[in-house]
Write a structure and sequence with these properties.
Blueprint (H helix, E strand, L loop, with lengths): L1 H28 L4 E4 L6 E5 L3 E6 L3 E6 L8 H26 L11 H37 L12 E2 L1 H25 L4 H15 L2 H4 L7
Antiparallel strand pairs: 1-2, 1-5, 2-3, 3-4
Helix pairs in contact: 1-2, 1-3, 1-4, 2-3, 3-4
Subcellular location: Cell junction, Tight junction; Cell membrane
Pfam family, one: PMP22_Claudin
Protein name: Claudin
Length: 220
């Protein structure tokens, strides 16, 4: 029963981490980190991501333009690019390591200690990946709130608001954190079944030495 519960916990943790990793990649390339609605022209909306700015018009459709220079970007967008790439890379490494550490995987059944270490290391990588995904999303959200309530900007000037990518990024980060937590819990609660089996055989041989002589009577 404990083995089934541990395998289920590992499976749920890995699926949550996989979901968070995929959403983190989607967040990196979505051009909807910020939205801008023009009151003077309600048929035109602007969106901004880490790589490009897009304008959405009902008659023309969506037109996007990539940023010309990395150094010309605001600090939060420059750092967000780096952190999101780091999050995606750490999530990929976490998937590889934790995948080989699953109990349901038949590879390395006789190396339970190694599989346990791989599972713990994969969980730590997912934690790090989740944090590095939450930091840039929260930073951009904080900057957006500050600029929205900036009293030095005239009220007639349009303000940027939260885009859909921020919510996707928050969900991705928390999924990675929860997935890594479940994997570490499953790894810490695991026991080495092969080792316990060896102890049982050794104990049986100690209590029943007559079995080694091939006799049925312990007194012979």
């Amino acid at each position: 029963m404990a083995l089934i519960f541990r395998i289920a916990m590992q499976s749920v943790g890995l699926l949550l981490s996989l979901l968070g990793w995929v959403l983190s990649i989607i967040t990196t390339y979505l051009p909807h980190w910020k939205n801008l609605n023009l009151e003077l022209n309600e048929m035109e909306n602007w969106t901004m991501g880490l790589w490009q700015t897009c304008v959405i018009q009902e008659e023309v459709g969506t037109q996007c333009k990539d940023f010309d220079s990395f150094l010309a970007l605001p600090a939060e967008l420059r750092i967000s690019r780096i952190l999101m790439f780091l999050s995606n890379g750490l999530g990929f490494l976490g998937l590889l390591l934790s995948g080989f550490g699953l109990d349901c995987l038949k590879v390395g059944e006789r190396q339970q200690d190694l599989k346990k270490r791989l599972l713990i290391l994969g969980g730590i990588l997912f934690w790090t990946s989740g944090i590095t995904a939450l930091v840039p999303v929260s930073w951009v959200a904080h900057t957006t709130v500050q600029e929205f309530w900036d009293e030095t900007v005239p009220e007639i000037v349009p303000r940027w608001e939260f885009g859909e990518a921020l919510f996707v990024g928050w969900f991705a980060g928390f999924s990675l954190l929860l997935g890594g937590f479940l994997l570490n819990c499953a790894a810490c609660s695991s026991h080495a079944p092969l080792a316990s089996g060896h102890y049982a055989v050794a104990e049986m041989q100690t209590q029943c030495p007559h079995l080694e002589n091939g006799t049925a009577d312990p007194k012979v």
